[in-house]
Design goal:
Blueprint: H1 8-19, E1 24-26, E2 33-37, H2 41-51, E3 60-62, H3 66-69, H4 77-84, E4 91-96, E5 112-116, H5 121-130, E6 134-138, H6 151-158, E7 164-165, E8 177-180, E9 187-190
Parallel strand pairs: 1-7, 3-5, 4-8
Antiparallel strand pairs: 1-2, 2-6, 3-6, 4-5, 8-9
Helix pairs in contact: 1-5
Protein backbone atom coordinates (compact mmCIF):
# COMPACT_ATOMS: atom_id res chain seq x y z
CA UNK A 1 0.00 0.00 0.00
CA UNK A 2 1.32 3.44 -0.92
CA UNK A 3 2.42 5.18 2.32
CA UNK A 4 1.33 8.66 1.17
CA UNK A 5 -1.65 7.86 -1.04
CA UNK A 6 -3.49 4.73 0.18
CA UNK A 7 -6.28 3.41 -2.03
CA UNK A 8 -9.71 4.09 -0.46
CA UNK A 9 -11.00 0.70 -1.63
CA UNK A 10 -8.19 -1.15 0.15
CA UNK A 11 -8.64 0.96 3.28
CA UNK A 12 -12.36 0.11 3.20
CA UNK A 13 -11.63 -3.61 2.97
CA UNK A 14 -9.24 -3.46 5.94
CA UNK A 15 -11.79 -1.50 8.00
CA UNK A 16 -14.48 -4.07 7.17
CA UNK A 17 -12.23 -6.91 8.30
CA UNK A 18 -11.47 -5.10 11.59
CA UNK A 19 -15.21 -4.60 12.18
CA UNK A 20 -15.56 -8.36 11.67
CA UNK A 21 -13.08 -8.99 14.53
CA UNK A 22 -9.86 -9.28 12.51
CA UNK A 23 -6.46 -8.72 14.10
CA UNK A 24 -4.11 -6.77 11.82
CA UNK A 25 -0.57 -5.46 11.80
CA UNK A 26 -0.46 -1.87 10.55
CA UNK A 27 2.08 0.95 10.14
CA UNK A 28 2.31 4.03 12.37
CA UNK A 29 4.58 7.06 12.65
CA UNK A 30 6.75 5.17 15.15
CA UNK A 31 6.73 1.47 14.23
CA UNK A 32 4.37 -1.32 13.19
CA UNK A 33 1.59 -2.13 15.65
CA UNK A 34 -1.10 -4.75 16.24
CA UNK A 35 -4.66 -3.47 16.00
CA UNK A 36 -8.23 -4.70 16.39
CA UNK A 37 -11.76 -3.45 17.04
CA UNK A 38 -12.22 -1.46 20.24
CA UNK A 39 -14.48 -4.01 21.97
CA UNK A 40 -12.83 -7.17 20.65
CA UNK A 41 -12.18 -9.60 23.51
CA UNK A 42 -10.74 -12.07 20.99
CA UNK A 43 -8.40 -9.39 19.64
CA UNK A 44 -7.12 -8.55 23.13
CA UNK A 45 -6.54 -12.22 23.92
CA UNK A 46 -4.66 -12.71 20.64
CA UNK A 47 -2.46 -9.64 21.19
CA UNK A 48 -1.66 -10.85 24.73
CA UNK A 49 -0.79 -14.30 23.38
CA UNK A 50 1.43 -12.96 20.56
CA UNK A 51 3.29 -10.54 22.84
CA UNK A 52 3.03 -12.65 26.03
CA UNK A 53 1.59 -9.72 28.02
CA UNK A 54 0.12 -9.79 31.52
CA UNK A 55 -3.10 -8.05 32.57
CA UNK A 56 -1.23 -4.99 33.86
CA UNK A 57 -0.16 -4.01 30.35
CA UNK A 58 -1.66 -0.74 29.10
CA UNK A 59 -3.37 -1.12 25.75
CA UNK A 60 -3.59 1.98 23.59
CA UNK A 61 -6.57 3.55 21.87
CA UNK A 62 -5.30 4.98 18.60
CA UNK A 63 -7.53 7.95 17.82
CA UNK A 64 -8.08 9.98 14.67
CA UNK A 65 -8.21 13.37 16.38
CA UNK A 66 -8.70 15.24 19.66
CA UNK A 67 -12.49 15.18 19.42
CA UNK A 68 -12.41 11.37 19.37
CA UNK A 69 -9.71 11.12 22.03
CA UNK A 70 -11.74 13.31 24.39
CA UNK A 71 -14.58 10.77 24.45
CA UNK A 72 -12.35 8.14 26.05
CA UNK A 73 -10.15 9.97 28.58
CA UNK A 74 -10.53 12.75 31.14
CA UNK A 75 -8.17 15.68 30.55
CA UNK A 76 -7.82 18.90 32.51
CA UNK A 77 -6.80 22.16 30.80
CA UNK A 78 -3.06 22.05 31.59
CA UNK A 79 -2.72 18.46 30.43
CA UNK A 80 -4.83 19.22 27.36
CA UNK A 81 -2.43 21.99 26.32
CA UNK A 82 0.63 19.79 26.84
CA UNK A 83 -0.83 16.94 24.79
CA UNK A 84 -2.22 19.24 22.09
CA UNK A 85 1.27 20.64 21.49
CA UNK A 86 2.62 17.12 20.86
CA UNK A 87 -0.04 15.61 18.62
CA UNK A 88 -0.32 14.16 16.13
CA UNK A 89 2.97 12.45 16.84
CA UNK A 90 4.89 9.51 18.27
CA UNK A 91 3.53 9.75 21.81
CA UNK A 92 1.22 7.61 23.93
CA UNK A 93 -0.43 9.34 26.88
CA UNK A 94 -1.79 7.48 29.91
CA UNK A 95 -4.89 9.16 31.30
CA UNK A 96 -7.96 8.35 33.43
CA UNK A 97 -10.48 6.43 31.32
CA UNK A 98 -14.09 7.50 30.83
CA UNK A 99 -17.03 5.09 30.90
CA UNK A 100 -16.71 4.77 27.11
CA UNK A 101 -13.62 2.59 27.59
CA UNK A 102 -14.46 -1.10 28.09
CA UNK A 103 -13.30 -2.25 31.53
CA UNK A 104 -11.14 -4.98 30.00
CA UNK A 105 -8.97 -2.24 28.42
CA UNK A 106 -8.45 -0.24 31.60
CA UNK A 107 -5.55 -0.75 33.99
CA UNK A 108 -7.11 -3.01 36.68
CA UNK A 109 -6.15 -0.75 39.62
CA UNK A 110 -5.63 2.73 38.17
CA UNK A 111 -8.60 2.72 35.73
CA UNK A 112 -6.39 4.37 33.12
CA UNK A 113 -5.83 3.78 29.41
CA UNK A 114 -3.23 4.80 26.84
CA UNK A 115 -4.26 7.08 23.97
CA UNK A 116 -2.46 8.48 20.94
CA UNK A 117 -3.04 10.37 17.69
CA UNK A 118 -0.59 9.12 15.04
CA UNK A 119 0.98 11.22 12.30
CA UNK A 120 0.72 8.61 9.52
CA UNK A 121 -1.37 8.89 6.35
CA UNK A 122 -2.36 5.20 6.16
CA UNK A 123 -3.33 5.00 9.83
CA UNK A 124 -5.31 8.24 9.63
CA UNK A 125 -7.17 6.98 6.54
CA UNK A 126 -8.01 3.73 8.33
CA UNK A 127 -9.22 5.55 11.46
CA UNK A 128 -11.39 7.88 9.36
CA UNK A 129 -12.96 4.87 7.64
CA UNK A 130 -13.53 3.00 10.92
CA UNK A 131 -15.09 5.97 12.70
CA UNK A 132 -13.74 4.78 16.06
CA UNK A 133 -10.34 4.20 17.68
CA UNK A 134 -8.23 1.13 17.05
CA UNK A 135 -7.30 -0.95 20.06
CA UNK A 136 -3.56 -1.22 19.63
CA UNK A 137 -0.24 -2.47 20.96
CA UNK A 138 3.32 -2.08 19.66
CA UNK A 139 4.35 -5.05 17.53
CA UNK A 140 7.30 -6.06 19.67
CA UNK A 141 7.71 -9.81 20.04
CA UNK A 142 9.04 -11.54 23.18
CA UNK A 143 12.84 -11.62 23.10
CA UNK A 144 13.13 -8.89 20.48
CA UNK A 145 14.88 -5.60 21.27
CA UNK A 146 13.29 -3.74 18.35
CA UNK A 147 10.06 -4.10 16.37
CA UNK A 148 10.18 -5.51 12.85
CA UNK A 149 10.37 -2.71 10.28
CA UNK A 150 9.03 -4.33 7.08
CA UNK A 151 5.53 -5.55 6.27
CA UNK A 152 6.83 -8.63 4.42
CA UNK A 153 8.95 -9.53 7.47
CA UNK A 154 5.87 -9.42 9.71
CA UNK A 155 3.90 -11.51 7.21
CA UNK A 156 6.65 -14.14 7.12
CA UNK A 157 6.87 -14.30 10.92
CA UNK A 158 3.23 -13.89 11.99
CA UNK A 159 0.99 -14.80 9.05
CA UNK A 160 -0.36 -17.80 10.98
CA UNK A 161 -1.64 -15.63 13.87
CA UNK A 162 -2.76 -12.47 12.03
CA UNK A 163 -5.71 -11.90 9.70
CA UNK A 164 -3.94 -9.20 7.65
CA UNK A 165 -0.75 -7.18 7.38
CA UNK A 166 -1.17 -3.61 6.13
CA UNK A 167 2.14 -3.23 4.32
CA UNK A 168 3.11 0.35 3.43
CA UNK A 169 6.85 -0.26 3.32
CA UNK A 170 9.43 0.38 5.98
CA UNK A 171 8.53 1.72 9.42
CA UNK A 172 10.79 2.89 12.23
CA UNK A 173 12.20 0.76 15.03
CA UNK A 174 11.36 2.97 18.00
CA UNK A 175 8.01 2.62 19.75
CA UNK A 176 6.19 5.71 21.00
CA UNK A 177 7.33 7.77 23.93
CA UNK A 178 4.91 7.02 26.79
CA UNK A 179 3.95 9.84 29.16
CA UNK A 180 1.72 9.16 32.18
CA UNK A 181 -0.51 12.11 33.08
CA UNK A 182 -2.87 10.13 35.31
CA UNK A 183 -1.44 11.78 38.44
CA UNK A 184 -1.72 15.28 36.98
CA UNK A 185 2.01 15.75 36.33
CA UNK A 186 3.96 14.33 33.38
CA UNK A 187 5.84 11.13 34.20
CA UNK A 188 7.91 9.65 31.38
CA UNK A 189 7.30 5.90 31.42
CA UNK A 190 9.17 5.02 28.21
CA UNK A 191 11.54 7.05 26.07
CA UNK A 192 10.89 6.34 22.41
CA UNK A 193 10.38 8.09 19.08
CA UNK A 194 8.84 11.26 20.55
CA UNK A 195 11.04 14.04 21.99
CA UNK A 196 10.77 13.97 25.80
CA UNK A 197 12.26 17.41 26.52
CA UNK A 198 8.90 19.20 26.63
CA UNK A 199 7.73 16.88 29.44
CA UNK A 200 10.83 17.19 31.65
Amino acid sequence: MHPDNPQPRTIGQIADSIRADALVAYPTDSCYALGCRLGSRDGIDRIRAIRKLDDRHHFTLVCQDFAQLGQFVRIDNDVFRAIKASTPGSYTFILPATREVPRMLQHPKKKTVGVRIPDHVVTQALLAELGEPLLSSTLLLPGQDEPMTQGWEIKDELDHVLDAVVDSGECGTEPTTVVDFSGGEAEIVRRGAGDTSRFE
